[in-house]
Amino acid sequence: MLPLASPTREQLLQRRRLLRQQRRNRFWQGSWRLASSMGVLTLLVLGLQQPYWQIRRPEQIQVKGSYWVDPDWIRRQLPLTYPVNIWQVQPAVLERALLGSPARPSPLKSVQVQRQLLPVGVIVQVRERQPVARARQGDQTGWVDRQGHWLPPDPFRHHSGSSLSWPELELLGWENHTPEQWALLLEALQQSEIRIETVDWQSGEGITLHTELGNVYLGPISDRLPLQIQTLNQMRDLRRYCECTPDEILQIDLTSPSVPTLQLTPAATQKRWKPLEQR
Fold first, then answer.
1. In Å, how far from its chain's centre is CA 193?
2. pLDDT value at residue 118
3. So what's the pLDDT on residue 217?
4. What's the pLDDT at 43?
5. Residues of the chain with confidence (pLDDT) below 70
6. Measured between alpha carbons, how far is 223 from 184 in angstroms, rounded to an integer?
7. Listed residue (88, 63, 56) closest to 77, CA to CA
8. Residue 208: burial class (beta carbons within 10 Å; 0-12, 13-18, 19+)
9. What CA–CA distance (Å, rounded) separates 177 from 174?
10. CA dist., res. 233 & res. 193, Å (int)
11. Selection from 82, 86, 78 nearest residue 52 by Cα
12. Residue 209 has what pLDDT?
């Protein structure tokens, strides 16, 4: 095998010039890429800071799922200072602000907040706590949901003249019992076919319902509640059998739902006994 010839001086110089040229090309290519990237990043940052990407007024907050709760109240609860850049909005922070705390009950059961880019804004999807009755706490009249939680009136839509079907049921003595006890009672009352106007549970003696049939006494809360309401439903034609009006009924006693008793006013009782005395 013939030995390889050593490169000449001219070949070595040409190879060095080629390597230097390649290094210069790589340097300028890298510099161009870096400059391009920095330029694009700068333009992107400047673009994102333009007014288009800002939330400048509450109307850009879109509230969905609100039926009972006033959307304007929801917008006021959001910890936002206008104008605010859309990228500065933190959905988790807004959700916690709307859900409240045990010390500050919220009329919202769940909240989901999302940013919207086109058009720029925020979407707030809510699930509400439906009011089923009204009650007083201190000197304020608010609403009570199915779980027995009292809710202040401020978050709800103004119901005077509203087309919403606001609950007419009134709870007396709400502060005297726990939400769990009220939830148990309200669940049973949902099965009533008799219109109930007021639940009087102000004392520890028992529960009195003011109904279209008259006053109905249930006694202390117990596991007999479903049977008591079932018996009350069966008494819807009571007037036909006793020939009496609700004003003449002093009380319907359902403490023993299998044997309900009817107590009339003294005037109604005397009116029924008078024909017998004349015989």
1. 27
2. 84
3. 95
4. 46
5. 1-5, 11-12, 35-37, 39-52, 102, 159-163, 272-279
6. 9
7. 63
8. buried
9. 6
10. 6
11. 86
12. 96
Tokens of 94: 């807004």
Grouping H, G, I as helix, E, B as strand and the rest as coil, residue 149 is: coil
Torsion of CA 74, 80, 85, 88, to 10 degrees: -100
Specify whether the CB–CB gap between 105 and 150 falls below 8 A: yes
81-106 burial string, b = 16+ CB within 10 Å, else e? eeebebeebeeeebbeebeeeeeebb
Half-sphere exposure of 261 (CA within 13 A, CB side): 6
Q: Name the strand (E) or helix (H) holding 167.
A: none
User: Whole-angstrom Cα distance, residue 2 to residue 163?
Assistant: 106
Position of tokens 């920095």? 38
In this structure, the strands spanning 84-85 and 170-172 are unpaired
Asked if 108 and 77 touch (Cβ cutoff 8 Å), the reply is no
Q: Given this model, what pLDDT does residue 231 score?
A: 93
Q: How far is CA 87 from CA 45, 56, 72, 117, in A?
A: 11, 13, 23, 10
CA angle 134, 140, 146 (to 5 degrees): 30
All residues at 6 or more sequence positions from 220 whose CB lies less than 8 Å from its CB, including other chains: 204, 205, 206, 207
Pair 166, 131: CB distance under 8 Å: yes
Q: What is the identity of the amino acid at 38?
A: M
Q: Tokens 């028992």: give the residue.
A: 206
Query: pTM higher than 0.85 for the full model?
Result: no
Cis peptide before 119 (omega within 30 of 0): yes
Q: How far apart are CA 279 and CA 28, in angstroms?
A: 125
